[in-house]
Fold:
Amino acid sequence: MEGISEQIKGFIFNLDGVVVDTARYHYIAWRRLANQLGFDFSAVQHEELRGLSRMASLEKILEWGDIYMTEAEKLHWSDVKNNWYVALISNLKPGDLLPGVLHFMRQAREAGMKIALASASKSARQVLRSTRMETFFDAIIDGNSTRKAIPDPECYMLAAQAIGMHPSECVIFEDAALGVQAGLAGGFHVIGIGNPEYLPLAHFVIPGFEDQTYSGLLARFSESMVSHS
Ligand code: BG6
Structure:
């Protein structure tokens, strides 16, 4: 019988928090906005924003600050935050890729895996350009190519389609609980990146790609799926 590892032919990587640590720049920019509006929020609270769209993030922050805004004001402030964010990421360099991720993706590529990138961010291409990763992927789906935010699986479905795969043939690498939900809703295999406490629904969780090898991870993931079935 065909095992999971024989079934998997494509890897889909989320960007923010999986390939590059851009989450800290989102935090700096959102926090600056909150401070201008007269309040503050913590890094722990910011964890709740992982994977949320720009507008959904702003709405959550306004809830924390107990602030009402008209739709026009929300558009204005989300633009202000985005300008700060774009300025912050303008100095990203190849050395800002998260430890081990490029080595892992190269091993996967050499083993014949198709590799796609799926991100909710409209600035994903800028991040990829600065880190010299724009031409690495077989397909890139970003916030400009999608209409529905996660937990809708649209960005992952589009990524799978772009590399010619069925969701059951792909593993998604995700750091956001909402992104994990999106992957599961689309029928994908999902490996969580980060703390297992925050990613209880992922099929398997690793802290990051440091010290991971392509074949070792696929074998452990495969074994865990057998023991859960
Ligand atoms: C996701 C991030 O990848 O993109 C979120 O995890 C962010 O924090 C979202 O809000 C949208 O990004 P952007 O750059 O289009 O505002």
Observations:
- The beta strands are 10-14, 114-118, 139-141, 170-174, 189-193, 204-206.
- Residues 16, 26, 49-54, 57, 82, 119-123, 143 surround 6-O-phosphono-beta-D-glucopyranose (CB under 6 Å).
